[in-house]
Amino acid sequence: MRVSFSTPLRAPAGAQAGSANNPDTLCINTIRTLVMDAVQNANSGHPGAAMSMAPIAYTLWQNALSYDPTAPLWPNRDRFVLSIGHASMLLYALIHVAGIRQVTDGKVTDEPALSVEDLKQFRQFGSKTPGHPEYGHTTGVETTTGPLGAGCGNSVGMAIAEKWLAARYNKPGFTLFDHHVYTLCGDGDMMEGVSSEAASLAAHLELGNLTWIYDSNRISIEGSTEVAFTENVAERFAAYGWQVLELKDANDTTTFMDLLANAKAETRKPTLIIAHSVIAWGAPHKAGKASAHGEPLGAEEVRETKKFLNWPEDSNFAVPDAVLPHMRAGLGARGAAARTAWEALFASYRTAHPHEAGELDAIFSGSLPEGWDADIPLYPTDAKGTASRASSGEVLNAVAGRLPWLLGGSADLAPSTKTLLKGEESFQPAQWGGSYAGRNFHFGVREHAMGAIVNGMALYGLRPYGAGFLIFSDYMKALSACPP
Ligand SMILES: Cc1ncc(C[n+]2csc(CCOP(=O)(O)OP(=O)(O)O)c2C)c(N)n1
Ligand SMILES: [Mg+2]
To answer: Which of 36, 154, 297, 437 has the smallest number of Cβ neighbours within 10 A?
Structure first.
């Protein structure tokens, strides 16, 4: 169905910056309506947060994210983590309107990663648009999310990986790694313990390359968050050592851009942007209500919301012609310029630093160096036996010599778990006596965060490990499974 957009696509006063035919408003309303239509079509899903976060997510991608939709695997791309995995339609709509290309068997194709047809298959068995985003299944998804808090933890691992790669491989005149990690999280993420552990460590490690945007709509499944969550999140994060910024209205994209600039400018502290929002903003009867969290709005409410947005009421999965070109001119052009400049830089790096470039090739492709296992000792049969943690420590150290990107640590148990890499520095900011090139990690007594963090690091091609007593593997089970 072709829909007429001859009526000005106006948002209600104060809803968005810009004039009546503002192309940004057009894109934001496209995302909002795709979310509503997909959830309605599937007759299940979570429309509320995805709708109200559309202005923020779109503005971040279009104006700040360094990402080339035609090269989704470019190593120095900014990372976007949707920790509120239930709001998956927001990410799927973005992947579509941003024109991200499909990656198959590690190769970029000319196909869109998600077509409108794929969006129509939202939540259907075997589709590319499952209920929660899955890494390796849908191009453009940087990590699997759904269990709340885990994406926040993954993003700390990603920020660590970025710092480590920069410290080890950037050379004078060759800034190969200087990207930022952005995470969109919600009340549920903030309540989960794993994000608190990860946030505490992120501040200690001075991960200024990390920004979490917190959708503070004060609604979760059981209703108002007042039933269980009344702490002052801003003060908590300030106490961890984060820079805390507040956006009074999630629709205020102009101020949001200023806050993003402040986040980038602060290089020693991670930043939390608390974005106050109304869940399902724009829906006349459902906005602000818990029922908008995880139920379709209903056909009539969808129609009325479209009317409120000055959108054709009979449209279904409509993407106006101007939307993809507009994002191509913004996000696409900026990302392509950064990516091609990086590729030229990496080509000359290859000449100047061939050994390091070879290591990076292996990291990016997930391969291991030739002979990585050559030094692993042989253990003859021995009636007395060797404690497995002792042999494990010997094997780790034997591999570490030949695999420079084997790195990790323990949740405050290294003397027992024997996981220290001999002769290697600690991964620490300078003020705590280490370096970001260090390979020994001190996760503190934070098993849950450790599990989520090493997964985030693994998503960069590094070979991280996290150690604790065997019984604690049960404690952290859900967060320790390695990504594909
Ligand atoms: C670890 C974990 N526990 C429980 C859930 C189930 N769950 C999904 S969304 C949600 C509420 C989340 O609230 P919020 O983050 O505020 O999302 P919003 O309602 O604002 O969309 C819960 C409890 C989950 N996904 N992960
Ligand atoms: Mg909420």
So the answer is: 437
The last residue of one of the domains, among 277, 309, 340, is 340
Across 331-352, average pLDDT: 98
Q: Which atom of ligand 1 is nearest to the CA of 185?
A: 15
Q: Is 220 in the pocket of ligand 1 (CB under 6 A)?
A: yes
Say what the pTM is: 0.96
The residue to mutate among 86, 184, 212, 448, having the most atoms of ligand 1 within 8 angstroms of its beta carbon, is 86
Spatial distance between the Cα atoms of 443 and 201, rounded to a whole number of angstroms? 7
Does residue 444 register a pLDDT over 90? yes
317 with 38: CB under 8 angstroms?
Answer: yes
The pair phi, psi for residue 423, each rounded to 5°, is 80, 5
Q: Are the C-beta atoms of residues 128 and 102 closer than 8 Å to each other?
A: no
The helix-helix angle for 333-352 and 354-365 (nearest 10°) equals 130
Question: Taking a C-beta distance cutoff of 8 angstroms, is the pair 62, 27 a contact?
Answer: yes
* 478 CA to centre of ligand 1 in angstroms: 16
Query: Taking a C-beta distance cutoff of 8 angstroms, is the pair 195, 185 a contact?
Result: yes
Residue 6 pLDDT > 50, yes or no? no
Backbone angles phi, psi at 224, to 5 degrees: -65, 145
Q: Is the shortest distance between the CB of 261 and ligand 1 below 6 Å?
A: no
282-334 pLDDT tens trace: 999 999 999 999 999 999 999 999 999 999 999 999 999 999 999 999 999 99
pLDDT band at residue 21 under the 50/70/90 scheme: confident
Inter-helix orientation angle 193-204/150-169, to 10°:
20
Q: Is 153 in the pocket of ligand 1 (CB under 6 A)?
A: no
CB of 185 closer than 6 A to ligand 1?
no
Q: Is 327 found in the same domain as 447? A: no
Do 213 and 328 fall within a single domain?
yes
| DSSP secondary structure letter of residue 136 | T
Tell me whether residue 347 is in a domain. Answer: no
Please report where in the chains the tokens 């991964």 appear, as a residue: 427
* Helix 150-169 vs helix 354-365: crossing angle, to nearest 10: 160
Which residue range(s) make up the domain with 29? 2-340
In terms of Cα–Cα distance, which of 169, 173, 199 is closest to 405? Answer: 169
- In the chain, the amino acid numbered 142 is E
The predicted model gives 114-123 an average pLDDT of 98
C-alpha–C-alpha distance, residues 118 and 128, integer Å: 6
Q: According to the model, what pLDDT value does residue 16 have?
A: 46
**3 state SS of 120:** helix
* Sole residue written with tokens 């990107």: 405
pLDDT in tens, 51-69: 999 999 999 999 999 999 9
Evaluate whether 445 touches 425 at the Cβ level (below 8 Å): no
The rounded Å distance from CA 293 to ligand 1 centre is 9
Q: Does residue 380 fall inside a structural domain?
A: no
